[in-house]
TrEMBL record:
Pathway: Purine metabolism; 7-cyano-7-deazaguanine biosynthesis
Protein name: 6-carboxy-5,6,7,8-tetrahydropterin synthase
Pfam family name, one: PTPS
Spans through the membrane: none
Similarity-based family: Belongs to the PTPS family. QueD subfamily.
Cofactor: Zn(2+)
Span of the signal peptide: none
Matching SUPFAM superfamilies: Tetrahydrobiopterin biosynthesis enzymes-like
Reactions listed under catalytic activity: 7,8-dihydroneopterin 3'-triphosphate + H2O = 6-carboxy-5,6,7,8-tetrahydropterin + triphosphate + acetaldehyde + 2 H(+)
EC number assigned by the record: 4.1.2.50
Length: 112
């Protein structure tokens, strides 16, 4: 099995839709650290699990400097963002999203 990981810093804003009072319901920004983990039993024709540049384009290129409430069709919590990132890359099995120091969410796709 081959494994790669790609870490990207994304500047983006969001506001959370919550059923309790919180300052996070106000629009605010983070410099998110997003790490995607990919794997493959066999390397592709180019000798890669997947192309780091393609991973960056799909995640960073779409989210960076955006309003996550406008870009994503769900409440943009760190947990939901982690799942969305994992679903964007076929070879991705896990994503970690750090929205600030000490606040990190991880999504791991079900193993088959």
């Amino acid at each position: 099995m081959y494994y790669i990981k790609k870490t990207m810093e994304i500047s983006a804003c969001h506001r959370l839709e919550l059923d309790y009072e919180s300052k996070c319901t106000n629009r605010h920004g983070h410099n998110w650290l997003i790490t995607v983990y990919c794997k493959a039993r066999e390397l592709n024709a180019n000798g890669m699990v997947c192309d780091f540049t393609d991973v960056k384009r799909r995640i960073h290129g779409y989210l960076d400097h955006g309003d996550l409430n406008e870009l994503l069709p769900f409440n943009p919590t760190a947990e939901n963002i982690a799942r969305w990132c994992t679903e964007q890359i076929p070879e991705c099995y896990k994503t970690t999203v750090q929205e600030s120091e000490g606040n990190t969410a991880t999504y791991v796709a079900d193993e088959e």
